[in-house]
Automatic annotation (TrEMBL):
InterPro entries: PDZ, PDZ_6, PDZ_sf, Pept_M50_Zn, Peptidase_M50. One of its GO terms (biological process) is proteolysis. This is Regulator of sigma E protease. Belongs to the peptidase M50B family. The chain crosses the membrane at residues 6-28, 97-124, 434-452, 481-500. Keywords: Hydrolase, Membrane, Metalloprotease, Protease, Transmembrane, Transmembrane helix, Zinc. It is found in: Membrane. One of its GO terms (cellular component) is membrane. One of its GO terms (molecular function) is metalloendopeptidase activity. Pfam families: PDZ_6, Peptidase_M50. Residues 111-181, 237-325 form the PDZ domain. It is a multi-pass membrane protein. It comes from the Bacteria.
Length: 507
């Protein structure tokens, strides 16, 4: 049922986004009296066609995109001299530019429209400080748990990730914080962290007797620079860690994550609570998890830490390292059954549950209540605030694609059709507001992606148009056709690559 729901919502969302994008091309082509031969939704063989006076509306079997085919758009012959003014080939460069740009423009407009509707109906989630690190920049600046971060440098904050990107720039941030109903000004000066890593080892004989927190690593496999050593290792390779007190830890590498130095402040944001939103045969709506295996649970961060422990198998050990100091450690629960204390209707009850059953339930989208309220912009801000949010997302998406092409972001972080369908399915489990937010994000991402100056995309055609405007010469039809073919083949390769990555994530 979940898979079917994902597919249905995926097809609905993609169809809406594609129709709006292609309608941008279509309407501007009509404005400049360009003949539109086909308006197509999907690729491959046609399911059915609707003939129009001038345009055939075509619905194809593979609903993963669409296109508008303009008369005179693909001219292969050098000496092409058809002077029909309805042909795209004969349009002025600025008209070609606007027809090509109209698709991304309408994608952005759909994003703006959706965010204005979301602001009016659902509002935007508050960004709440759940806790601050001990002796961190945030603690020194005076931030406290429960603070609502409303603005950063006079701009509204809609999402922790947006705030974190501003923090990552290293520049000072002037925050407007709501504390006990009153505004408080806080200035953050982000600090550059050390190199950091998270290790997961397996085959550890006695995890219970180990006490690693705040200890220094002297060597890893006999070498002092543990980060260089880890860059050469693969899952399953043997590891020997020597600590400053002489302790030696031996095992095999299970997982390893490296984090380069970045600017941080020590804020932990409230993203989910320890209260059940959607129950099952064990939990009821409103149940508050207050203890697991003797560990007190007061918020989402506490619950997240216990989830880490629950995910570890016997003999596994996970720990985080900053420079050479172990700053946190996670040991597996020895028993396969968890002992939970639940507060239900003012009463404390005990629940014993297998680890797997607990994990399968707790990681589902929408299972836990969110620990914040939504706020609704009023007056003029009901329009300006969602537009600012959309602008932030457009800027963030451009920066993300920039990091992709400069190598700062891995290509396997991109989601293709399979990954998008899974994400949409998760959003559907959360609620309709999550679906709308995701639709707005996808349409904005589509608009930005199409502006990348790659032949075969709108950005490639925009580049040709700008060239013609500057040089006042037409691009050779043969050259343009060859370049577009190369670009199209690249896009097919990219689609295969991201789809492969999507499928591999399931394994």
């Amino acid at each position: 049922m979940t898979v079917l729901l994902s597919i249905v919502w995926f097809l609905i969302i993609i169809s809406v986004i594609v129709v709006v994008h292609e309608f941008g091309h279509f309407i501007f082509a009509k404005i400049f009296k360009t003949r539109v031969e086909e308006f197509s939704i999907g690729f491959g063989p046609a399911l059915f066609k609707i003939p129009g006076k001038e345009t055939t509306f075509r619905f194809n079997i593979v609903p993963l995109g669409g296109y508008v085919r303009l008369a005179g758009e693909e001219v292969l012959e050098e000496g092409y001299e058809d002077t029909d003014p309805a042909l795209f080939y004969n349009k002025k460069p600025f008209q070609k530019f606007l027809i090509a740009f109209a698709g991304p423009l309408f994608s952005f407009l759909l994003g703006y429209f959706l965010f204005v509707g979301i602001a009016g109906v659902y509002g935007f989630p508050e960004v709440i400080v759940e806790r601050v690190g001990k002796d961190s920049i945030a603690a020194q600046a005076g931030l406290e748990p429960g603070d609502i971060i409303k603005k950063a440098n006079s701009e509204y904050v809609f999402n922790p990730s947006i705030l974190e990107m501003e923090i990552a720039s290293g520049k000072p941030l002037d925050l407007t914080v709501i504390r006990n109903g009153e505004e408080v000004a806080v200035t953050l000066n982000p600090e550059l962290t050390n190199k950091r890593a998270i290790f997961t080892l397996q085959g550890i004989e006695d995890t219970e007797s180990l006490n690693l927190k705040n200890k220094q690593i002297v060597s890893l496999n006999g070498e002092e620079d543990l980060y260089i050593v880890m860059s050469r290792l693969e899952s399953g390779d043997p590891i020997e860690i020597q600590l400053e007190d002489g302790t030696i830890i031996e095992g095999k590498l299970s997982q390893y994550s490296y984090f380069p130095p970045t600017y941080e402040t020590g804020i932990v944001y409230a993203t989910f609570s320890n209260v059940i939103a959607n129950g099952n045969n064990v939990f009821q709506e409103g149940d508050k998890i207050i203890e697991i295996n003797g560990i007190s649970i007061t918020n989402g961060s506490d619950l997240q830490n216990v989830i880490y422990l629950t995910q570890l198998n016997s003999g596994e050990l996970m720990f985080a390292v900053s420079a050479k100091e172990i700053i946190n450690e996670y040991k597996p629960f020895t028993a396969n059954t968890l002992a939970l204390l639940i507060e239900r209707n003012g009463q404390i009850i005990n629940i014993n549950l297998p680890k797997k059953e607990f994990l399968d339930f707790i990681v589902q989208p929408g299972v836990l209540e969110v620990p914040y309220e939504n706020w609704h912009p009023k007056g003029v801000e009901a329009l300006t605030v969602p537009i600012q949010w959309a602008n932030n997302l457009i800027s963030l998406t451009f920066r993300s694609f920039g990091q992709l092409f400069t190598g700062r972001m891995s290509a396997d972080q991109i989601a293709g059709p399979v990954g998008a369908a899974a994400i949409i399915g998760q959003a559907a489990m959360v609620g309709f507001d999550a679906i709308l937010n995701l639709t707005a994000l996808i349409t904005i991402s589509l608009g930005v992606f199409n502006l990348i100056p790659i032949p075969g995309l709108d950005g490639g055609r925009i580049v040709f148009s700008i060239y013609e405007m500057i040089t006042r010469k037409r691009v050779s039809p043969k050259v343009e056709a060859i370049v577009n073919t190369i670009g199209f083949l690249f896009l097919i390769f990219l689609m295969i690559f991201v789809t492969y990555n999507d499928i591999m994530r399931f394994f």
